[in-house]
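Box 3.1 A note on notation
Throughout this textbook, protein chains are presented in two layers. The first layer is the amino acid sequence; the second is a token string describing backbone geometry. Keep the layers aligned when reading.
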Amino acid sequence: MTWILDAFDSRTAQLSLEDLELRTGLPRSTVHRILDQLVRLEWIDRAPLGYRLGRRSRGTDVVPGHDRLRAAAAPVLHRMALQTGTVAHLTVLDRADSVYLDKVGGRLAAALPTRVGGRRPAHANAGGKAMLAWLPDESLAGLFEGGIRMCTDRTITDPDVLRRELERIRERGGLAFESGESVPGVGCVGAAVLGTDGPVAGISLCGAEQVVDPHRLGPLVAAAAREITRALYPMSGDPARRARFR
């Protein structure tokens, strides 16, 4: 079981039965039998092209309704990735971390050290910062009581600087930018999907710093976040306009 779960590395969101047979070195019948057990236990999900990590492997038990969220976001992420040539991510907050629920981006995706079920500090990536910007001040303080982790030499680690950055994100209507703060050489643009009680998820477009243009990608990401919000809350108008999270 461990060999099968470890086969899903940072470059691969989905694997076929044949892929898993090759990566584990186990007989196909054994792989198939163990996969059936892992699917029943929700460690693995069946996917259109094979298998992917399930709810328990992704560490998203704390996020109610994440399957509905992924379903609402999936077509939007695919469209943005194809339209822009960047990598699209869907994340949710778990304490001070961004947990990756989906990653779309073709061959370029392999160059980014993110994976479905993986985690990165929320304050260091655009989707995470977009979600943090809408949290109450007391919640933010509790998240960073033990200090702010550094990922690169550009990561914001000063609480006052981070607070000002989150204020700028709110002033921009929720758009968050990242330039080498999580991964050297990678730039991202992100926005939050907002529910009536706060941020539900973050979406982002990422790629090489020199090709990620915030002015070009920003409107696309903002519109995508609103589209996913409408899909999740079709009868409640626009929560982003009505919410008073702070």
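Residues 66-242 form a domain with the Beta-Lactamase fold (CATH 3.30.450.40). Strands lie at 44-47, 50-53, 87-94, 97-104, 119-121, 176-179, 186-195, 198-208.
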